[in-house]
Amino acid sequence: xxxxxxxxxxxxxxxxxxxxxxxxxxxxxxxxxxxxxxxxxxxxxxxxxxxxxxxxxxxxxxxxxxxxxxxxxxxxxxxxxxxxxxxxxxxxxxxxxxxxxxxxxxxxxxxxxxxxxxxxxxxxxxxxxxxxxxxxxxxxxxxxxxxxxxxxxxxxxxxxxxxxxxxxxxxxxxxxxxxxxxxxxxxxxxxxxxxxxxxxxxxxxxxxxxxxxxxxxxxxxxxxxxxxxxxxxxxxxxxxxxxxxxxxxxxxxxxxxxxx
Length: 260
Prior knowledge:
By secondary structure, the chain is of the alpha+beta class. The protein has helices spanning about 15-35, 45-55, 125-145, 150-165, and strands spanning about 60, 75-80, 80-85, 95-105, 110-120, 170, 175-180, 185-190, 205-210, 210-215, 220, 230, 235-240, 240-245, 250-255.
């Protein structure tokens, strides 16, 4: 998605951040349920039904359903699918890497997060490492989300973890974003960059950080359904995301719960 040059960053009050935390917890609880539901034999449509029940059951509204016509509550991206996979008849097989992206709205405020789950009790080490590296890069980006730092510090921190880990690709076509009263807001949050460059981070900003990492080339294309993004070389990808508030006491993850 594009951002207009003159868009302004939405600054939240502490009270508004607490409202976003409520939406974020719905997302976290939903993803926690889905993480144990991803088993060989389940279809992605069944995962979507579980997410629908979790979100509506919590009194929230799905962020994704109907967004630019998107037909489901979650995105389920398997193996070479990077993001925006539409739930359907596809069956999860043993060893598949399933990236699940989820968003929810409570009282007009959005939460957005993603996890990668391997459908196996004995995953391939290379696939487990891909997911672990992606999750670790997200953690590094969150640690850099401190008032006074710059956007490049977040991207640089994410990129450094991935580059150190080996021959992985960082998808540049899709990046993180601001979030609040809309799901996708200014500013963009790249998963690469240079320290001390870019927009200054300020207390009250809330950002969705979401590294997407591939084995091999980071080049992607969109399938004929106009949603599903896949790697051009067919190699697998992982996606992890959190909604993070920049506060006076440091970064706070809003899409978390005690179980995750």
